[in-house]
């Protein structure tokens, strides 16, 4: 079976560390990368600090993922430090990228027309077009700061802005096709709802069934709701063919069902897309 | 001013990496730690893998935070591997902890009574009482798996279960008082809503005001809503006295207001607790 592409996601911003913002960006990216057949191996959140960013990017590179995706810190303010951190990690100079500058200029020209006032290219605006040497800017269809793509030590580094709409738009426009082109795998999952069985009695069942078919990952999630507790059992696998995926999930589902029912538990399938 | 206590948060679970679960645990903990005067410097998410857990805990220890808080992987199933990973990182043996075993026993005895059936202490259940040597179990008022507290190399390591209700309950019962006792600082914040000014025009204003009073951290968040875009400006600081906090935030607010209004922008204060 093909090798699964490995991703590290680096979300940057003090607002995440003080708990002001829930990290929905990391969640969205992980789900999207998984659905494209990739595997996120690590998500890291750090603050707006050049030393932290550069040392963390170096640590990510040392683990040799296929992709590093950074989110946040591309804007015009003094604490948007991602590109400076990435450049330092890779020993690259930062300089104004003419393609990126054209993108930023176009945005402000269009805004100038709409507003009927000339918007100047201030240093804060030019900062958004100042990229590590050799980087390629990625069009931002929603906001101003372009995304950034870089190749270094065999790793593709992608920097996306932190505003969720901008991050998603650049990902869908410029990144998803790159991943789809390089990934040979598809991802399948299924959820089962189990009642009338303790997680600690389910544990040896999962263990047995997982050993029979280790390609299907099985994870139990104890849940509480009004009226009592239940267990959500989540099965997932990746394969080159959808047919193989579904077959593997089907076999595992049957084996789990048989054993859970034997122990007096009840099991129902949960519609996907919850 | 007193040193701010530093925290690293390590959330463990494949369900986070595939984007099945939004990491609300990290968000809740960050907010709570910040409100207790602590500073979260890094949040890391990794999968259910002993090597990953042990190497990541070692990396965390090397950065010498005051606390490492792990979340997830304390349950009875084969992929609950946190304590094995932590033990390996610290070169400690795992063994059944008698205090933890009593906690687990009590839970199942109480459950046995409620259900009118004897629940045996299976290996999967004893696993939840198997802790790194020298660890102290923390009562879980909601679920079964105890939390774990360990001291190593001057760092306090706390392991909490991943079920949000259990994590929160153990944190409030056993951890918040420890942090409050060691932290001398309180945290204050304020949000301002800015309209009629570009973030790129705000950038030099933030820069100026921040240099006047670097203890108040200022961060701009561009937001979109129906009817247009605005900027949320978030001010935050930590100090030993509430009075000093409020004074510092007040001064910074006035300086920002003056400059934003000069540039034709509008500014309103956002009630806290959004």
Would you kindly provide a written description of the structure presented here, covering whatever features stand out?
The structure is a homodimer of 274-residue chains. In chain A, the strands form three sheets. In chain A, strands 2-1-3-8-7-6 form a six-stranded mixed sheet, with helices on both faces. Chain A has 274 residues and is an alpha/beta fold. Chain A folds into two domains: 6-182, MoaB/Mog-like domain (Molybdenum Cofactor Biosythetic Enzyme, Chain A); 186-270, Ribosomal protein S10 (Alpha-Beta Plaits, 2-Layer Sandwich). In chain A, strand 7 and strand 8 (155-160) form a beta hairpin. The model of chain A has no long low-confidence stretch (mean pLDDT 94). Chain A contains nine helices and twelve strands. Chains A and B meet through helix 1, helix 2, strand 2, helix 6 and helix 8 of A and helix 1, helix 2, strand 2, helix 6 and helix 8 of B. Strand 2 (39-46) of chain A pairs antiparallel with strand 2 (39-46) of chain B, so a sheet runs across the interface.
